[in-house]
Amino acid sequence: MQWTINGQIRQAEVDFRTSLLDLLREQFQLSGTKKGCNQGACGACTVLLDGQRINACLTLAVQVQGRSITTIEGLASGEALHPVQAAFIEHDGFQCGYCTPGQICSAVGLAGELARGWPSAVTADLAADDIAFDRLELRERLSGNLCRCGAYNGIVDAVAASLGQEAGA
Q1: Does the pTM exceed 0.85?
Q2: Same domain, yes or no, for 88 and 158?
Q3: What is the pLDDT of residues 19-29, one digit of tens each?
Q4: Tell me, what CATH number does 15's domain have?
C-alpha cells in the first residue's frame, strides 16, 4: 500500500484493519499525531487528508491509499514554523501540549473551510459569500478538539491571529 505523507511517498504492508493513526505512529514513527480517546471524540489525532481535517483514529489506512496526508510534522517548512504553529506559541494556545498537534491541524483545516465558504452549525447566513468571523464561529469549528487543560481562550486567539483577524466577542 502507498500513501503520500507530508509530501513523501511512503509504502507499507499493513493489516486492512489498521487505522491511519496506528499507521502513522507505529509504521512511520510520526508520533506528533496523538492517540487520545481512540473513538473520534477528542480530536487529538486530527490530521489533514487532501487538505481537509479528519480523525485518524476513525479512518482505516487502506481507505486513504494514494491520498495526501499531512500531519503536524509536515506543517513546518524546514526550521520555519507554519503560521498557525507560531500563533499557538505567541498566544499561549497550549499548556501540556498533548492536544496541540490535533488543534493545530484542525485550525489549518478550518482555515480552508472558511476560505471555501463552508458554513458551520452556527453560521447565521448560509447563503453568504463571507462567513462572519467571531469567537462563536471559531469555537464551533474547533469543538471537535478537546483540551483537558482548558487553554481554549489562547487557542481561539491563536487561530484568529493565524487567520489575520481578531476574533470578536
Answers
A1: yes
A2: yes
A3: 999 999 999 99
A4: 3.10.20.30
